[in-house]
Amino acid sequence: DTGVSQDPRHKITKRGQNVTFRCDPISEHNRLYWYRQTLGQGPEFLTYFQNEAQLEKSRLLSDRFSAERPKGSFSTLEIQRTEQGDSAMYLCASSPPGTGGHGYTFGSGTRLTVV
Amino acid sequence: RKEVEQDPGPFNVPEGATVAFNCTYSNSASQSFFWYRQDCRKEPKLLMSVYSSGNEDGRFTAQLNRASQYISLLIRDSKLSDSATYLCVALNYGQNFVFGPGTRLSVLP
User: Fold this and answer.
1) Model confidence pLDDT, tens digit, residues B2-15
2) Contacts of A19 (CB under 8 A, 6+ apart)
3) Residue B6: alpha-carbon gap to chain centroid
């Protein structure tokens, strides 16, 4: 499979627990993005990596959220002390350099439910 | 005010109809624009890019008006399989996408 892979597909957690999601981008893509999508809304940008460097973070990314891409390949998104408002689809996307958005590919997402 | 705005719909149209979606954006520095399609509980997938000169792909036509900061998508001869949410997207300087809330389309038999 040469697409963007996300794991797990679904996660149910109790409020207050920590969760971690993983994203494996397309191997030639040096840019990796995380988005969050709630019901009835479009995806909202969270953060973006170019190789291992985290270049931009949205103000939506509160202190409870942290993202890493340690070797410039896969990335993890951790949410600490989850709240019910964190329930959403978390989408990862990757793109190659210099394509101006045309090479964007999304993964299937991780659906988080906080109970 | 959201940076990219769309009428959320739903648009309920019969098969064969022509339907048009509109989108406005507020950031005049946005570089590129796209229409994405999203099926229920799936990831967004690129439908087409949007250019000032217009872009046509089969039954789909997209248009950008930079002066009015307005984007459109026209679907001709609607099919049942066109039922989905259509997301208007702007690419900003930082290379992240800004999505509109989406317009829901239901094509009815």
Assistant:
1) 899 999 889 999 99
2) A11, A13, A78, A79, A82, A112
3) 8
Q: Measured between CB atoms, does B3 come within 8 Å of chain A?
A: no
d(CA A57, CA A11): 24
> Looking at the DSSP assignment, which residues form a beta bridge with residue A52?
none
**Helix, strand, coil % (nearest 5) of chain A?**
5, 50, 50
* Backbone region of residue A84 per phi and psi (left: phi > 0; alpha: psi in -120 to 50; beta: other values): alpha
Which of B32, B42, B97 is facing A45, going by the closest CB pair? B97
Question: What are the pLDDT digits (tens) for A2-16?
Answer: 799 999 999 999 999
**Residue A5 at interface with chain B, using a CB cutoff of 8 Å:** no
